[in-house]
Each structure stands twice: as structure tokens, then as C-alpha cells.
Amino acid sequence: MKKFYLYNTKTRKKEEFSTTRKKAGMYCCGPTVYNYAHIGNMRTYIFEDVLRRTLEYCGYGVEHVMNITDVGHLSSDGDSGDDKMEKGAAREGKTVWDIAKFYTDSFMRNCEDLKILRPTIIPKATDHINEMIALVQKLVEKGFTYENSDGIYFDTSKFPDYAKFARLDVENLQEGHRIDVGEKKNKTDFALWKFSPKNSKRAMEWDSPWGVGFPGWHIECSAMSLKYLPQPLDIHCGGVDHIPIHHTNEIAQVEAATGKEFCRTWVHGEFLVIDNGKMSKSGGNFVTVDTLKDKKIEPLAYRYFCYSSHYRKQLAFSIDNVSGSQTGLNNLRNLVKRTVRCDEKKAADGEIENVLEKFYKAVLDDMNMPVALAEVWGILRNAEISNEIKKAAVMKADEILALDLFKEADEKIIDGIKFEKFENTPESELQKIASSLNKRSEAKKAKDFKTADEIRNAVIAQGIEILDNKDGVVCRNLGTNFAG
Length: 484
Ligand code: AMP
Ligand code: ZN
What we know:
The chain has helices spanning about 40-60, 85-90, 95-115, 130-140, 215-230, 245-260, 290-295, 300-305, 320-340, 350-355, 355-365, 370-380, 385-400, 425-445, 450-460; strands at about 5-10, 15, 25-30, 60-65, 145-150, 150-155, 190-195, 215, 235-240, 265-270, 270-275, 275-280, 315, 410-415, 415-420, 465-470, 470-475. The strands form 5 sheets. The protein has a 4-stranded parallel beta sheet with strand order 4-3-9-10, sandwiched between helices. Strands 5-6-7-8 form a 4-stranded antiparallel beta sheet. The chain has a 4-stranded mixed beta sheet with strand order 14-15-17-16. The chain is built from 15 helices and 17 strands. The mean pLDDT is about 90. By secondary structure, the protein is of the alpha/beta class. It binds adenosine monophosphate (AMP) and zinc ion.
């Protein structure tokens, strides 16, 4: 096995990963399927995918479990507010089951577009109600719970290490900010089982030893992870927002119920931010993979963009930044194409490992993808490395990067103008054409059609077809003056 150093939230240290099991068990908190996943969510799933690919490179098999939350996630991460699923159903006039199916399918398509490997097991919360009830029952038997008019609650005062994982300052936790105290005994107590409202029927509700109701969100992930993975889990992941509430509560309830460590390594990814705030579904400030596609940005350009920052640092989103990544990815693919246009001789494995030494060093150092990506550029530009070796090395690197680096880059977008079939035209030339065509658009806006036509004719004279589509201007190389 290769040495893989991973930052563990639990110890706040980079540690060498190891497991005694045949397959490393990795649990990733999955999406709440009441709306489209936004590209912030997808940033988290991309880093988790890199983690899985890296474990596989190191020689581990991976049992990768990712749940689908289709009940019980309330609009606050505490225990108040509406059930997000029921809210989604009301918004769209559909059943909760239809909503869950629709947004699960959409999420799976996003994952495919981003080349995120399909988890080995994808359990749905609503298929595991019995396991959740059994786990709550254990906690009831061991005396960690109490009942109030709202449901069965976990009594955090009975779990002395509650604040340890997130280094919570419980004394000073703001009421109302993190939780509504209501009938809770302690600010940090959380619902394990919520009762259905007395005078109305919920769309999703089940019988339990305590009355009709539905599971709390935190118990879902714990019950499903313990069903499919041996305890202690090797790895549990999610976004940083899960550290103080969701994962803290998961640790408390599982360790209280089983008396054993829940998980050895906790890995958390930082946020994608927009206008300095977290991109969020409830905030309404979100961009999806489909929004990017509508803007002619490839999903993999977003994956490339994610590599511009370490997964434990925030990443600021703007369309311009991601468009820049599309250009970067196109250029990288063009460079690959020029490089590999060689007679292929098989390169020896040892040579490839040598050339990729710094690439892997960066990946194995807590997935330092900005450095790893720069290494790939460096390899391709290094005149001392033969083309055969470059080709084989890039193919290996792409098993982790998953950027489809051998894809024909036959489309580029420069200053909003789309260029087709200009692979061998220098960027500076395309820049000139883009700037002329943008001047033409301005002239048209100002009703100066004479200037607009002059510019158009000058571009056409270079053997370029101009298409004015509803999404913008497209230039197609007809292959007369520009090498295609
Ligand atoms: P949800 O569907 O809201 O349960 O979130 C799914 C995953 O996306 C969780 O692991 C969250 O921590 C993560 N997440 C939510 N918002 C962001 C964001 N803006 N940037 C990165 N990850 C996020
Ligand atoms: Zn979870």
C-alpha cells in the first residue's frame, strides 16, 4: 500500500491512512433530494470522488456508501422548521415520493456529468426506518433519551464528550441560532424520532414504539452507515457545515448506543462561496451543473475549477472564473493532443511512476490537487520527457483527475464567443477575432449596421463562418486559412 496522508477533523492532524480490512469503508453524507443539487454540493462530492480514486490508487478496495436523504431533514439543522421534502412537494404540487425520485435522478446525472464514480451502495433513508427505530431503541434502553411532546430526544448531558469533536463552546452557544430550546433539557439535545403533528397527517410517517412519526436526520446516516460498513468506519465525509451539528450528533448517538468508536477518520471539505456567502439551496443563490451547461460550460470544466483550490480552503465562484477553467481545460487537452500525436510505443511502468513522482506526492499529501494539476502541465511541457512517456503518464494521472484529458477539444469559448474547430489556431488570433466580433455586437446595438457588416465581412473573408445563435455568437473554422 502507498502512504496516503489525510487530514482528520477528529484529531486536527494529517495522519497516514491505514485499515486492516480488505476494503476501506467510506461513508459520504448524500444529498437531501428536495431540490436540484447545486455546484457547492457537487464540490463536496468531487473531493470525495478524488479521495476514493486516491484510495484505489494506493491499493485499497473501497466500499463507498452514500445515502439519499428523502425524509427527516428539517429546514434548520436543529429540530425545528418544516421537513424539506414536504416543503418541496408543496412547492411543486407533487407527492414527496415523486419529488424524491425526480431530484435523485437529477443528482445522479450530475454525478455522471462530473465523472464522479457511482458509490458501491446508495441506501435511501425511507428504506431503513426499521434500522433507525432499532438504533433509537438501544439508546432508550441505555437511558440516553427522554420524551417530550415533540418526540424522542437524545440527552447530550449524558454523553460527556459531546463537545469534543467540533470543539464546541456549549456554554456560549446561541439559542435560536443553532437550536430552538423549546422543551429540550439542554440546548444541544436533538431529536431521534419526531412525532407527527396531532391534527394532521404527514405524507411520510411510520409507526414506532413511541407513536407515529418520522426519524431525525442524524439517526438516518448513523443507522445506514452501521448497516453497510463495519464499525469503526474507516472514513466518514461531508462538508464543513456538518462538523458542529450533524456529525457531532452522529458520534454521540452511535458511541452512546454501541460503546465503541464510531469512525476513525473524518474528512470535511470547505464551501464553495458566492458573493462571500455559502452557496445554499435555501439561500436561493445557487448555480447548478445545468446552469453551467446552458452557458456552454462543460461540467468537467467545473471539476477542473475545483482543482484550483485545496479542498479544505474556500473557493469563490463566478461564471468568469469557471469560464477561465474551461479555457484552461481546453488548452490542456489541446496540449495533450499535440503531444500524443506520436507513434505509440509502450512506456515502461517504472518510467511512468518516475515522471509522475511529484504528481502522486501532491495527491498523497492530503489531496493537494492544485499542485497535482500544475505537475501535469509541467510534464507535458518538459522537453526532456519523451512523448510516449508523457502520454502514458497523463493517462495514469487522469485516473485520479477524471478530466477526460484525451477528449478532442474542438470547442473553445473566448470573451463569450464560441470557436469550433480551431484546435491549432493560436489563442492570440482567436482573441483578435473575438474582440472584433464583440465590437460588431456593440455596433449592432447602436444601430451602426455599416460598421457591423464591415466587421462581419472581414471575419468571413478569413474562412470563418459566423452563426448568430440565441445563446451567442459561434465561429466555425471552414478550414481555408486556419489550420483545423
Ligand atoms: P445537502 O443536500 O444540503 O444535505 O448537502 C449535501 C452535501 O453538500 C453536504 O456534504 C454538505 O456539507 C455539502 N455542501 C452544502 N453546501 C455546500 C457549499 N456551498 N460548498 C460545498 N459543499 C456544500
Ligand atoms: Zn449524514
